Amino acid sequence: MSQEQILQPVDESVGYMLKKASTALRSAMDQALRPLDLTVPQYACLEVLRQRPGLSGAELARAVFVSRQSMNLVLKGLEDRGLLTRPPVSGHGKALPTELTSVGRERLLAASQVLGVVEHKMLAALAPAARRRLCADLASIAAALGDEAGPGGS
Amino acid sequence: MSQEQILQPVDESVGYMLKKASTALRSAMDQALRPLDLTVPQYACLEVLRQRPGLSGAELARAVFVSRQSMNLVLKGLEDRGLLTRPPVSGHGKALPTELTSVGRERLLAASQVLGVVEHKMLAALAPAARRRLCADLASIAAALGDEAGPGGS
DNA sequence: GAGAGTGTGTCAACATGCTGACACGCCCAT
DNA sequence: ATGGGCGTGTCAGCATGTTGACACACTCTC
What is the distance between the terminal CA atoms of chain A, rounded to a whole angstrom? Predict the structure, then answer.
């Protein structure tokens, strides 16, 4: 029942620093993407879609850690702007495979380059080996906490 | 103009894993705190307040990465439940030093123990040295991206 | 062929959080 | 004492995201 390490300052807590780093990255990405009229979820959606074309909205949602509904809004916005296409089926309940348009691919490329700058800035102080180690550690954390994290819908 | 490392799968992107780990942690903490009727921001608020009693709402907001307004709602909720006290001043524009009540300290202790389990689970695969290294790396990332991240209010 | 089971897209309601803007108190320089 | 600058608390409006629920399509089993 001893107080263990409860007294440690928050700056030494992995959880706190994780939140801090994540918030900083999110903010930096948002700022970098603003000139391109893209939000972070929108970019993430495009990026996942490039790597795995034809994905349905629900699968996309799981990959980007949002709910199906939010992803639907994102997709709607991107579709209206001509960055991706979905087969215009009238009925519900049918998977709508989504694909990037050439405009979408182009926009994604621009976004990748802008975000490359951000990532470089973020990792400038870390050697390649340290980066891989960090990535592996983060993966370990995510796995240990149960992979089914995030908003799982219904 | 070469495609550089654009083709790497998302699983090897530090940014992606950072988001994934952060989401997983947030989800796990939320679930762990639910029985105590506390949300993550509420817990964070209590924890910071324990380490630095008498903090004003705005300072608290910066420490927890939320806006003053959100923090105000959090504080209101916690005050109504008797977990903390603020001097009931009528006018605006004056800093209201906040302090934990004994009930608040007690609740915070319970939360710390519950979250200790989560943290242990999260870091089980990492040796102490690796934990410190991870923490330092995350701090490095946050610093490199500019410390003034997060919702900065007006 | 009929049935359950799973996955999907959509609607409504709700919760959370932020941006913008305002009024007020404190502090320092004049 | 008086003015400006800064920090703070609060209000209104809006955007985003989630939970819960429903209708429909596909597949597998009997």
Answer: 39
Between CA B123 and CA A8 the distance in angstroms is 16
- Kindly tell me if the per-residue pLDDT of A7 is higher than 60: no
Q: Check whether residue B16 has its CB closer than 7 Å to nucleic acid strand C.
A: no
- In a 3-state reduction of DSSP, which class is residue B130? helix
Which residues make beta-bridge pairs with B29? none
Of A27, A124, A139, Cβ closest to residue B149:
A27
Q: Please count the other Cβ atoms lying within 10 Å of the Cβ belonging to residue B120.
A: 10
Query: Interior CA angle at B73 toward B69 and B78, to 5°?
Result: 145
Who among A112, A126, A138 is closest to B21 (CB)?
A138
C13 C1' – A154 CA distance, angstroms?
A: 15
Nucleic acid strand C: bases within 7 A of protein CB:
7-12, 16-26
Residue with tokens 């200790």: B116
At residue B147, the pLDDT reads 66
Please give the share of chain B, as a percent, with pLDDT higher than 90.
75
Regarding predicted confidence, which is higher, A6 or A121?
A: A121
Please give the structure tokens belonging to residue B47: 């924890």
> What pLDDT, on the 0 to 100 scale, is given for residue A88?
81
CB B57 under 7 Å to nucleic chain D: yes
A79 touches strand C (CB under 7 A): no
| A150 to B15: CB separation less than 8 angstroms, yes or no | no
Decide if pLDDT at B32 tops 60. yes
